[in-house]
TrEMBL record:
Membrane spanning residue stretches: 61-80
Region (Disordered): 23-50
Location within or outside the cell: Periplasm; Bacterial flagellum basal body
Organism of origin: Thiomonas arsenitoxydans (strain DSM 22701 / CIP 110005 / 3As)
PANTHER family membership: FLAGELLAR P-RING PERIPLASMIC PROTEIN FLGI (PTHR30381), FLAGELLAR P-RING PROTEIN (PTHR30381:SF0)
Matching NCBIfam families: PRK05303.1
Name of protein: Flagellar P-ring protein
Protein's UniProt keywords contain Nuclease: no
Family, similarity comment: Belongs to the FlgI family.
Keywords in alphabetical order: Bacterial flagellum, Cell projection, Cilium, Flagellum, Membrane, Periplasm, Signal, Transmembrane, Transmembrane helix
Length: 427
């Protein structure tokens, strides 16, 4: 960036080479009236007429200001990002919670007891905990239609304290047709260690609707999954090592040796040499203060620093299921020629009746008649020169009518031939 703007700044400064040094030290007189710098009739003077020295001084001053702006722009980092957007603090993480519960109050859209027996078992178990004991005959014939078994998932943010509320997602696990209008009963949410960290309860909000009548139905979005905003209350905090004395470890979201080195250099320039060390492409070790308050303030200042990350590697991501192709930055090709044609095979089967002779002993039978046709389209040969971008290749292939699946096959063949200068990732 600086190498491109510096010659432009020098060229702008050459406009004022003939300017005397004293002209910059002499203050410019301000006009005392609207016509002070013009003719008596108010019109501007002709070129070279009147105060030519002041106009020349203004031109030289503007040239210096333009050059100064260009040099300042060259000193600014390009595509700078805050360290908080590039890294995460090791040990400061989100924890997943999960629980099993019941949603009640469904208008006949719940689980069918005969096909989902665990819903009835869960309901009877809840009745027993609440002190309701049903006779054996009634319990065995219980078939509620307004109850659905659900799984509840939530993310517990770092530093969450008891009493805080978090969002939860409710998803049906049986054959309930809709959770709209239902209420989730109190459900404990547990972590990977089996401990309960939150308790969820509330009305389920579904972002869809459906209707059915006379065998016809319509549905918008999904009705068997919903959300409860602030539906869980944190009951236990997760222990972390942030308050303990010692260095803080920053982990890069996208490992890169260049970005790790730049992050360490930026921290050292702000807080002094030796404060941060890039251990590898994904880890930066930072020496932090000992007390919790100082560590918090220090890390806040570190995360606010701006760093220009290294350009990502050239990559092409292909989703073979949907036919989506995403091209990364700086993807180029070597010299290659591509010829791709379509081979279509059509199989058509017709059934005919074979009728025997009237006096014969045969029987009437249905005989299939199969017709197989194969058609190969003419292959289009495309030549690509070295250094051409993949974007130009995709445009050329789209121009000849290549389908997304054809494009995926061509890219894989280019990579196998060594002509695609990028990482090819198939998901």
């Amino acid at each position: 960036m600086a190498s491109e703007l510096l010659p432009l700044a020098v060229a702008v400064l050459k406009l004022g080479d003939d300017m005397p040094t004293e002209s910059l030290r002499t203050p410019l007189p301000l006009p005392t009236s609207p016509t002070a710098w013009g003719r008596s009739d108010g019109s501007l003077p002709a070129r070279g007429e009147g105060r030519g020295g002041e106009h020349a001084t203004y031109r030289h001053l503007l040239a210096w200001l333009a050059a100064l702006c260009l040099l300042c722009a060259a000193a600014l980092p390009a595509h700078a990002a805050a360290i908080r957007d590039l890294t995460s603090v090791q040990g400061v993480r989100v924890n997943q919670l999960v629980g099993y519960g019941l949603v009640v109050g469904l208008g006949g859209t719940g689980d069918q007891a005969t096909q989902v027996p665990y819903t009835t078992q869960s309901l009877l178990s809840m009745f027993q905990r609440l002190g309701i004991n049903l006779p054996p005959g009634v319990a065995s014939n219980l078939q509620p239609k307004d109850v659905a078994a659900v799984m509840i998932t939530a993310n517990l943010p770092p530093f969450s304290q008891p009493g805080q509320q978090i969002n939860v997602t409710v998803s049906a696990v049986g054959n309930a047709s809709s959770l709209a209008g239902g209420t989730l009963l109190m459900t404990p949410l547990k972590g990977a260690d089996g401990q309960t960290y939150a308790v969820a309860q509330g009305s389920v909000v579904v972002s869809g609707f459906g209707a059915a009548s006379g065998g016809n139905s319509t549905q918008v979005n999904f009705l068997t999954a919903g959300m409860i905003a602030n539906g869980a209350t944190v009951e236990r905090a997760v222990a972390n090592n942030f308050d303990k004395a010692g260095p803080i470890t920053l982990a890069l979201n996208s490992p890169s040796f260049g970005t790790a080195s730049r992050v360490a250099d930026s921290i050292n320039q702000r807080f002094g040499a030796g404060t941060a060390t890039a251990l590898n492409a994904g880890v930066i070790q930072v020496n932090a203060p000992l007390t919790a308050g100082d560590r918090t303030a220090f890390l806040g200042q570190v995360e606010a620093l701006d760093v220009s990350p290294e350009s990502p590697p050239a990559k092409v991501v292909i989703d073979a299921r949907s036919g989506t192709v995403v091209l990364g930055q700086n993807v180029t090709l070597g010299a290659c020629a591509v010829a791709h044609g379509n081979l279509s095979v059509t199989i058509n089967t017709q059934y005919e009746v074979s009728q025997p002779n009237p006096l014969g002993a045969g029987q009437t039978a249905v005989v299939p008649k199969t017709d197989v046709k194969a058609k190969a389209d003419k292959a289009n040969l495309l030549m690509f020169k070295p250094g051409v971008t993949l974007e130009a290749v995709v445009r050329a292939l789209n121009a000849v009518g290549a389908a997304p699946n054809d494009l995926i096959a061509i890219l894989q063949a280019m990579k196998a031939a060594g002509a695609l200068h990028a990482q090819l990732e198939v998901i």
